[in-house]
UniProtKB/TrEMBL annotation:
Originating organism: Amycolatopsis camponoti
Domain of life, per lineage: Bacteria
Stated name of the protein: Uncharacterized protein
Length: 37
């Protein structure tokens, strides 16, 4: 099962932080230290 997320940012300055927050909110299964929500 896959997931798709489409993001539109006004600048690339903070894209890594935004992606990190999205992955945390989704319970990123590729990060074994992250507990699923």
């Amino acid at each position: 099962m896959g997931r798709k997320v489409h993001l539109e940012l006004s600048s690339a300055d903070n894209c890594a932080a935004v992606i990190g927050q999205v992955l945390a909110a989704l319970g990123d299964s590729s990060n074994p230290d992250q507990e699923p929500r």
